[in-house]
Amino acid sequence: MTSGRSFWSRFRRSEAVMENNMIPHEVVSRIVDGALPVQAWRQHLNLTQQEVAERMGVSQSTFAELESVSKPRKATREKIAAAFGINADQLEL
């Protein structure tokens, strides 16, 4: 990402978005372009599948499968959201 905004500026904006259950424009744009919500959020947060898998306590291949599901179960959405630091509702698009 080559944004002119500093890391901390982007971080504070991301915190505000997550606290208000908002969905960043970048995430929406990725979904419009064909990404699934989990993948769009992961890319927006600059996380690798391996990093998210480690946060969830699963293998990278298991997370890759979860990321490819268009509408994960509620319990799965909650676990992924916790790994992302967002609310599970933000994954329901």
Automatic annotation (TrEMBL):
It holds the Pfam family HTH_3. GO terms for molecular function: DNA binding. CDD domains: HTH_XRE. InterPro entries: Cro/C1-type_HTH, Lambda_DNA-bd_dom_sf. SMART domains: HTH_XRE (SM00530). Residues 38-91 form the HTH cro/C1-type domain. This is Transcriptional regulator. It comes from Pseudomonas frederiksbergensis.
